[in-house]
Amino acid sequence: MTIDTPSVLIVEDEPDLADLYAAWLEDDCDVETVYDGNDALDAIDGSVDVVLLDRRMPGLSGDTVLDTIRERGLDCRVAMVTAVEPDFDIIRLGFDDYLVKPVSKGELVDIIDQLQLRASYNEKLQEFFALASKKALLDDQKTDAQRKSSQEYAELRDRLAVLRVQVNDTMQSLFEQDGYRQLCRDIAGESVIRE
What we know:
By secondary structure, this protein is an alpha/beta fold. The protein has helices at residues 15-25, 37-43, 62-71, 105-119, 123-141, 144-148, 151-175, 180-189; strands at 7-11, 30-34, 50-53, 77-82, 97-100. Strands 2-1-3-4-5 form a five-stranded parallel β-sheet, with helices on both faces. It is globular. Pfam families: HalX, Response_reg.
């Protein structure tokens, strides 16, 4: 993984949109673009740092591509970039972050920077921030009543509480290093930590 120039794979079935994302990122990233799930699985290997993955595609869905990436044990960060509004099913998915279309250039650049930093965290901290992103997304998209009636959401909150205790030492060491500012942004962006 190269922190300065991340390798980004864009998986988007709308070619014009995929090419727009690539144009936005090409100055700061090594970008490869594919237009369906099968090509994504052919293109992804250990050299890819970040995958920007559409969720709903003909043929292999983004969910299936994501499951395959995780089954292969590839050490890349995955952000779903999709028009699919999040529901509680996202809790079981192994992505690191989730953006709902339309997205801006700034959002894509920020998410890649954030995921690159998270890649340097240990496994527990990576899991913590992936789950925190899911909780923040559901907090934004679902009503209080919907969240309270969801068993998956309750399990998510419980897992986050356990992880919070486990990652305190790692977080403290990051506060003392250069990751301090980004970690604060992650924490501020995720409303889960204080709940």
